[in-house]
Amino acid sequence: MNTDVSYQSLVYPDQIDHNGHMNVQHYVGMFDKASWNYLAAFGFTPKYFSVQSKGFVARTQTVTYHSEVMAGEIVTITTECNSVGKTSIGLSHKMFGIGRDYIAAEMKLHIVQIDTKSRKGAPLPLDKVKAMKRAISGSDANI
Predict the structure, then answer these.
(1) Cβ–Cβ < 8 Å for 125, 84
(2) pTM of the prediction?
(3) Which end of the chain, N or C, is less surrounded by CB atoms within 10 Å?
(4) Closest CA to 94 of 1, 17, 19, 14
């Protein structure tokens, strides 16, 4: 499978909660940004969504926390596509602290493309499905 760096950021002091580590809302926000960056590489861009009247909604997301993240750390998120269906995509994210040899957190995400007018599931474009399936098989390392 092809795994790409999809997001990187410094953890700021205002992202730290009363327990002294990054608050869960910021993990989810960073994973969300990683999703959009990853999907854009396959042509799921703001222009695509606007012109095609499409959008993505989350069906399920599961976050597993492995290690605390503190202010001043730089985190990197890698993303890989696990599955592509008629209307849906499965993604896996892993968050690492720069210079750390372990995972801080992981997110499994299942999203569904919708028609933004009818608010119902909509088929994914065949060219994008094919590109994502190539990424799953590892036959396209330049995505």
Answers:
(1) no
(2) 0.91
(3) N
(4) 1
CA 118 from centroid of its chain's CA atoms: 25
Q: Is residue 141 part of a domain?
A: no
Six-digit token string for 121 = 């599931």
CA distances from 139 to 1, 15, 79, 131 (A): 8, 38, 16, 9
Cα distances (Å, whole numbers) of residue 60 to 28, 45, 87, 106, 124: 13, 22, 14, 14, 18
Does residue 143 form part of some domain?
no
Q: What is the pLDDT of residue 141?
A: 45
User: Does 140 map to a domain?
Assistant: no
Q: What is the SS3 assignment for 58?
A: strand
CA distance 130 to 120: 22
Distances, alpha carbon 86 to alpha carbons 22, 48, 58, 122, in Å: 36, 18, 15, 8
Question: Does residue 110 form part of some domain?
Answer: yes
Query: How many domains is the chain built from?
Result: 1
